[in-house]
Write a structure and sequence with these properties.
Length: 336
């Protein structure tokens, strides 16, 4: 009994040690000036694919979790954002470790941003709970097509000495960190992305100009609360901010027979920032396949120019037995 208590106490002290330094890093990072909002909208990231933003949530499923998603935002509005993102994550052979690979391509007007990053998370078990600390490292490519920018005078190009009428692209690194608390019923997490605040340099007609993305903080959580043998309640919340702009997603859904999910949510944090109501549905099919769909109904002034936003995604979990249950190879002493 004494040995077990000592081990639990050691794990708690170890977690407090890691958490203390994580919070110190966050405070140091946000002591500097922050810049414009850099995250793209996604109803499915806030409700189902949180591991895309939060490295500490990698490898939460048994087996390999894969997903692919497409979002068409503000349908009917010329130059509106269209986003594709996908990824895969799993538990790693290393003790208490997990990782993932994620890709995205976001197109909006004359700009296109493509990103790729890998994640690693280390989990500290505490009874039936766990604390995960994660990090991600990636690259971001930004392309600006000056030919799509129109000048009022001639409708061709923008007549700006800085921005070329040709395509200009640049690549920058990206680093993020996160921490998550996982309980059998709920989870809560905190992350900081783009912590190094790298800038991108684009070529103009006669000089380069810099674009700064800014660091941003994310805080969120979710739960699966059983109401009966057939029904469960699934609240989720995600706040992302660079302390200049804020995006707050909150949703509430119910799951029937662990297969069918229906819910509603909103995006915004006060009267002036409410952007949309969204409706979500998810169906779990046999063999680890899940289909998700959401519709965002715009409720601010942009509703006069568009027909809302659509987002679809598919998730497939490759069972653990196909990943780890392999025939053990025993070397013959004569043929090592």
């Amino acid at each position: 009994m004494q040995d077990s208590s000592d081990k639990k106490g050691y794990k708690i002290i170890k977690f407090i040690f890691y958490l203390k330094y994580f919070l110190i890093i966050c405070l140091i990072l946000f002591a500097f000036n922050l810049n414009a909002q850099v995250f793209f909208n996604s109803t499915h990231i806030s409700t189902w694919h949180q591991q895309f933003d939060q490295p500490a949530l990698s490898g939460q499923s048994e087996g390999i979790r894969t997903f692919a998603a497409y979002r068409s935002q503000w349908v009917g509005l010329q130059g509106a954002p269209n986003t594709i993102f996908l990824g895969a994550d799993m538990k790693l052979p290393l003790k208490n470790s997990s990782g993932g690979v994620f890709l995205s391509h976001d197109m909006a007007g004359a700009t296109a941003i493509t990103s790729a990053h890998v994640t690693y998370a280390y989990s500290i078990p505490i009874k039936s709970n766990s604390i995960s600390i994660g990090a991600k490292l990636g690259i971001v490519n930004m392309t600006l097509d000056g030919s799509k920018l129109v000048s009022p005078s001639d409708n061709i190009g923008i007549e700006d000495p800085l921005i070329s009428e040709n395509k200009s692209s640049t690549i920058r690194p990206e680093v993020g960190i996160g921490v998550a608390f996982n309980h059998p019923i709920f989870f809560a997490h905190l992350f900081v992305n783009n912590i190094a605040n790298f800038t991108s340099k684009l070529d103009g007609f006669d000089k380069q100009f810099n674009t700064s993305y800014g660091r941003y903080l994310g805080v969120g959580g979710g739960a699966e609360i059983p109401l009966s043998q057939k029904f469960s309640l699934n609240p989720s919340v995600l706040l992302r901010s660079d302390f200049v702009n804020y995006q707050f997603d909150i949703s509430l859904s119910t799951t029937f027979l662990k297969k069918y999910t229906f819910g509603i949510g909103s995006r915004g944090y006060n009267k002036s920032s409410f952007e949309s109501l969204f409706f979500i549905t998810k169906i779990k099919l046999p063999k680890g396949i899940g289909l998700m769909y959401s519709y965002d109904l715009s409720i601010n002034s942009i509703k006069l120019a568009c027909n809302g936003s659509h987002e679809v995604s598919i998730q497939y979990i490759i069972p653990k037995k196909y990943v780890s249950n392999r025939t053990k190879i025993i070397n013959h002493p004569r043929y090592l």
